Amino acid sequence: MLETYTGPLLPPTLLDDLTGVYTQVFSAPPWHEDAAAAQAFRQRLTTDASSDGFRAVVARTGTRVDGFATGRLTHTPLPAERAYPRVTSQLGEIRTSELLDGAFEVDELAVMPTARGRGLGRRLLHLITQTAPQRRAWLLTARHAGETVAFYRGMGWHEVDPLPQAVNDIVVFLAPWHSQATG
């Protein structure tokens, strides 16, 4: 069963469930995030739920959460937290604004290991982006996460070329239907 949530308030039990999935998925390789990162995710999710265009899509089997995707609308300049300064550095301020401002950012996509291999990640990614304004959606991931990068490429997402000599440790992807995606 797939459920969609919008803000501004998410039920506490949903926050618990999503934080639990986040912890299991992102504490494993290649992410190796710790308990503090999971708590930061929970706080970010609480805050993001009141952001413009926030959406969460949750996949359940009975009461068990098998995976989820979250996202919201992007406004530039990007915040000076998390990986956003690297996005701006990698793309430049003008391209960041042109490509991402007003677009839907897929912030998190997580599927439990026991639920993988059945197309759930694909369905979550499709559902979370289907209402993107002017069909413009984007996401970023760590370059060292090879399977994750391959997944997005396999889904037809397009990597935005970084500026010459930019630090290139993240990959910024545009949805296949983004008006400025090239491939």
UniProtKB/TrEMBL annotation:
Superkingdom assignment: Bacteria
Stored SUPFAM superfamilies: Acyl-CoA N-acyltransferases (Nat) (SSF55729)
Coiled coil, from the record: none
Molecular function as annotated in GO: acyltransferase activity, transferring groups other than amino-acyl groups
Record keywords: Acyltransferase, Transferase
Xref: Pfam families: Acetyltransf_7
Record has Transferase as a keyword: yes
Residue ranges occupied by any N-acetyltransferase domain in the UniProt entry: 5-179
Name of this chain's protein: N-acetyltransferase domain-containing protein
Organism whose genome encodes this protein: Paractinoplanes ferrugineus
